[in-house]
Amino acid sequence: MWFIIPVLGLILGVYLGSAVTFQLPAIYLKYMSIAVLASLDSVFGGIRSIMEEKFDGTILLTGFFTNALLAALLTYLGDRLGVDLYYAAVFAFGVRLFQNLAAIRHHFLTRLRNKRQVKQGESNE
Amino acid sequence: MSNKRWYLPITVVFLFLGIMLSLQFQAQTRVASDLTQQRTETLITMVRGLSEKRQKLALEIIDLGNQLRSQMESSQDEQKMLQSISQETEKLNIVNGTTEQKGPGLTITIEDYMPIVYTDLLNIVNELWNAGAEAIAINEHRITQHTTISYTETHATTEREAVFDDYYVMFITVNHQIINYPIIISAIGDPNNLEKGLTLPGGIMDNLALFNAYPLINKEEKLTIPAVEAPHTHYFVKEYNPETEKLKSSNETETKQKKP
Questions:
Q1: Which residues of B touch A14 (CB under 8 A)?
Q2: Does the residue A11 lie in any domain?
Q3: Domain membership flag for residue A86
């Protein structure tokens, strides 16, 4: 049951977020959304790296925060400059997100198949 | 698997992700529920519903206004009733002599040299009532339906009193209290009517004149007639009340039924 503690962390985070009375001003909604997208991408990347057994905690943590911050900052900068970098960020992180998800799925499938083959081999013997 | 290494970072990351997600979710729902973000159809239905609600509320206002008015009217009725009751009490007070009364009228003064007995006083009082007097007093004794006018005989205490027969002297009493001279009968009413009633040819004054008694009649513009000293209490006369009678009779029948 190795995934229970992170799930508990997620639930706790959601609870904290809803319990906090702080309300995000509507102007920053756009930047917050892009930051959330970036952090989601990082999280899935982390899960993928666990699957591939080349997980590095420092990379994940730094990636999580810097990605989110940079995405928000870049979007802000784009707004200042009159270039809609928002869509670029959405596109980039969206593509990476789906790639990560696909990779996770692939790993799950290969693992399942491996297990079955092992079982079949055992029964064959 | 090298479990311990990735536990902590993933949990931290998930924690922050949760916070961010819920914050974003809240903000987004807030924006979505904003009126400017609504579709025209929903806005139309909202407007319709609200206007219906408003109409209902307006009807309720009218309804409540009507209720208020009816309540006010009923309270006015009650006030009227109260007024009529207080008027009734006033009348009863006049009749029963429980309050001091003021008004125009006349006084009849009888000095002690006038040969007058208590029946003459009775006749004068009767004549005054007849002539429309509204309140009568004899020497500060209010005359009501319970007043007794009578006489008493006592031993003479002074020689002046003993002028008449055998050291006994007769006193006129009102409510069993001796009336001292000069006897002043005061009556509230129309002074002219009262005077006419008394000085009718062949009336009480003519009768008294036969005995050489000439009481003085004075018309007064302002007379004060005192209240009775002790209001009369009823012990045996009870008001008839059908409800209580019924209750009593039913109680009696019940007890009768229980006995056997």
A1: 18-19, 21-22
A2: no
A3: yes
